[in-house]
Design brief:
about 350 residues, Spore Coat Polysaccharide Biosynthesis Protein SpsA, Chain A, eight-stranded mixed β-sheet, three-stranded mixed β-sheet, binds 2-acetamido-2-deoxy-beta-D-glucopyranose
């Protein structure tokens, strides 16, 4: 009873906030409202305990068929997709190959793009995956994520940003490249930055954006389905393009460090926004083993760099991005963007290692 009241209060609070925000986000108002309604209804439905009645991620998808009307005459997709059901199994056929994954997803178009063939959706989501040669993880991600997104009746595409040259992995910069290239192709209204080794375990974790940037992978099996620490922002992160520009994207200067994620929190905060997170029961992920774990790693650079961010985030991000696109290939299940990220933007304020050293002593 008490809980019910609290929930009611919370919901009305969110509702008021949403309306206020709506005044500032006129064009997004309707979409915000639909995702809000979605949340409401999800919240009311029984939350199935994890581990019970997990469905195959491909179940029900064979019911989706193209209909014989023009795109303009398609009915609107329902607010809640009828295929969204709850907990999903994470499993793969023996000897999974890319061909098999392609065969299972006949409605996905070249480049890894999909639109519900039988209804018209409000939601246009780009999924950007930084990639550094984890071929098997990529195969498994594509096998799992395509049906997951189709269950949600979204218009989406998957962009894999492939770093070449034998330098350390720079996830922030690859995310920036993915954002820029994706936005040149379509007017996406939501971008999901997605680690290649995380597979969502519940399809009520809807891949759309709300009124704030969101940290989505809140409950990873490896961390016993809770946050490893409160400030953890790794894994899957989503936001609207307008918010992405507001935080100036991600830092380009973190080579091989997961600390880059702390940087995101700082950027969101300094640009005056809040961060949202899904319910722990929905934001569940299965992590494919990587062999090494950076999540708890404390970097000696950390504190110095953090101080540095406060001063530099406006100059280090999408506005200082330099790279060379070496190729763009459309594969059946993804678009492969191959980039040389060592290339510097000659017009950008080049990050100066000297500054880091100086700050390190703080
Ligand atoms: C989806 O499939 C399950 C069984 O696999 C079935 O119980 C359920 O009714 C189906 N849902 C829809 C919307 O068809
Ligand atoms: C998978 O590969 C192994 C080794 O190549 C083979 O022995 C096995 O029969 C394969 N399984 C299936 C289901 O194709
Ligand atoms: C990176 O690799 C590409 C293609 O292999 C090459 O053209 C480019 O010069 C390399 N860049 C650097 C900085 O090594
Ligand atoms: C992406 O394209 C590059 C260049 O053709 C290729 O070397 C690389 O293997 C491709 N990566 C993937 C994941 O398809």
């Amino acid at each position: 009873m008490k809980m019910e009241q609290q929930r009611g209060l919370l919901l009305s609070f969110v509702g008021v906030q949403l309306l206020l925000m709506g005044a500032f986000h006129q064009s997004h108002h309707l979409r915000d409202l639909t995702s809000f309604l979605r949340l409401l209804i999800q919240d009311r439905s029984e939350v199935s305990p994890p581990g019970t009645s997990q469905q195959d991620v491909y179940s029900n998808l064979s019911q989706i068929h193209p209909v014989d009307v023009s795109e303009d005459d398609l009915p609107n997709c329902p607010i809640i997709s009828p295929y969204v059901n709850g907990p999903l199994k994470v499993m793969f056929p023996e000897n999974l190959t890319m061909e098999k994954a392609v065969e299972k997803n006949p409605l996905v178009r070249l480049g890894g793009q999909y639109k519900p063939p039988d209804c018209w959706t409000w939601h246009h989501t780009a999924v950007v995956v930084p990639y550094y040669g984890q071929a098997q993880h990529l195969q498994q991600l594509l096998f799992h994520l395509h049906p997951f997104l189709q269950r949600q009746q979204l218009h989406y595409a998957i962009y894999v940003v492939n770093q070449v040259n034998n330098t350390a992995f720079n996830r922030g910069k690859l995310r920036n490249v993915g954002f820029r290239e994706a936005m040149q192709e379509e007017n996406w209204d939501c971008v999901f930055f997605h680690d290649v080794n995380l597979l969502p375990e519940d399809d009520r974790n809807i891949y759309t954006c709300d009124i704030f940037p969101a940290h989505v992978s809140v409950a990873i099996n490896k961390f016993n389905y809770k946050l490893p620490y409160q400030g953890y922002l790794g894994g899957v992160f989503a936001l609207r393009p307008i918010h992405y520009l507001r935080i100036n994207g991600f830092s380009n200067v973190y080579w091989n460090w997961d600390d880059e994620d702390d940087n995101i929190a700082t950027r969101v905060k300094l640009s005056g926004m809040l961060l949202s997170r899904p319910h722990l029961l929905f934001g569940r992920y299965h992590m494919l083993e990587e062999g090494q774990d950076h999540s708890q790693k404390q970097s000696v650079w950390r504190f110095g760099l953090r101080a540095w961010i406060h001063q530099r985030w406006r100059h280090d991000g999408i506005n200082s991005l330099g790279y060379r696109l070496l190729s763009k290939e459309r594969h059946p299940l993804y678009t492969n963007l191959t980039v040389d990220i060592n290339f510097q933007n000659p017009e950008a304020p080049v990050p100066n290692r000297g500054i880091w050293r100086l700050r390190e002593s703080f």
